[in-house]
Amino acid sequence: MKKKHLGLSSLLLASSFPLSAVASECGTVSIADMNWSSATFMANVDKFILENAYDCEVELVPGDTVPTTTSMVEKGEPDIAPELWSNSAKELLESGVKEKRLRFAVQSLSDGGEEGFWVPQYMVDKDPSLATIEGVKANAQLFTHPEDDSKSAFYTCPAGWTCQISAGHIFDALHLDQSGFEKVDPGSGAALAATIAKAYDRKQPWFGYYWAPTSVLGKYPMVKVEFGQGTDAKHYQECITQVECAAPKPIMWPPSKVDTVVTESFANRAPEAMKYLTHRSYTNKQMNQMLAWMEDNQADGDMAMEEFMLKHKDIWSQWLDEKTQAAVQAAVDEL
């Protein structure tokens, strides 16, 4: 595999603590290999570290959010789900924890899943006021509508997606129409990404909805626009996410909780491996850039794991103590 430098952020998680290395307790471990890029990357990194630092015998098994959670609760397998978007299986997870079948290990994405309205970094570098909604409104004329020069464009979430509802309500709550903005439906997720890529290639203005972690924000640095109103999880759930929302407030999206979840039996039988999982986490900036590398190189989870382990000891070493670091480094040297 031809590799190229990724340049992940070297910011280290404040929650990273050294671990002790006791390998003999781990045994056979099954890890859910979910069918999206960040999750399969996480699963492969966990496999490599658990095998080489803790002498686990690891098997990756296909997974998806609800089926995996259900299986973990009812059958006690797989042992580990590295990336579960908890709100998608909230009742199942709460039930599993209450019945002492499951345990939350860590927020696998320390920033949580992010949604918001964004502008390109190069625009904010030139005019810092564009990092705020008031600055965007004051400069609405910059964001030319692709079909009507007299209007300003706001690229919204594609029709049929849940985020179209929330983005539309927040657009209304911010009264963006009064500043001349009109929602532009890109038609698909790929088309929405293409509008960002096109703007970046030409260094043109762009304003719209997007989310993280994604390869798009790894390739094209964007700044999330601040509304100045904070967030309100209750209002978000009861109004912003509902089709009928009579009086939406201009709140920021609350972060989506993204967790590593394990079975209680695994946590009890492999405490040292469990400690690793409680400290293994990624920032969205790190994951965005990893996803961009995977897309550019058409890489699967195993290839991405190799790239990460070879190039980013500055990150993974913080999850381990000196002894386990040495064991993992010896395995990395053999890649």
DSSP summary, beta strand count = 10
**Low-confidence runs (pLDDT<50, min 5 residues)?**
1-24
The largest beta-sheet arranges its strands as 3-10-4
CATH topology of the largest domain: D-Maltodextrin-Binding Protein, domain 2
By helix and strand content, what is the structural category? alpha/beta
Overall morphology: globular
CATH homology group of the largest domain: Periplasmic binding protein-like II
Instruction: State the CATH class of the largest domain.
Output: Alpha Beta
Mean pLDDT over the full residue set: 91
How many domains, as an integer? 2
Distance between the termini: 11 Å
Return the string of H and E elements: EHEHEHEEHHEHEHEHEHEHHHHHH
Description:
This is ABC transporter substrate-binding protein. Residues 1-23 form the signal peptide. It comes from Vibrio algivorus. This protein is α/β, with parallel strands linked by helices. It folds into two domains: 28-111 and 257-332, D-Maltodextrin-Binding Protein, domain 2; 114-240, Glycine betaine-binding periplasmic protein, domain 2 (D-Maltodextrin-Binding Protein, domain 2). It contains 15 helices and ten strands. It has helices spanning 37-54, 65-75, 90-98, 121-126, 133-138, 162-173, 189-202, 215-219, 233-240, 264-269, 271-279, 284-296, 301-311, 313-316, 322-332, and strands spanning 28-34, 57-63, 80-85, 102-107, 114-120, 152-155, 181-184, 208-212, 222-224, 258-263. The chain has a three-stranded antiparallel sheet, sandwiched between helices. A three-stranded antiparallel sheet has the order 8-5-9. Strand 6 (152-155), helix 6 (162-173) and strand 7 (181-184) form a beta-alpha-beta unit. The longest helix is centred in the N-terminal third of the chain and has 18 residues, at 37-54. The radius of gyration is 22 Å and the shape is globular. The model is unreliable at 1-24 (pLDDT under 50).
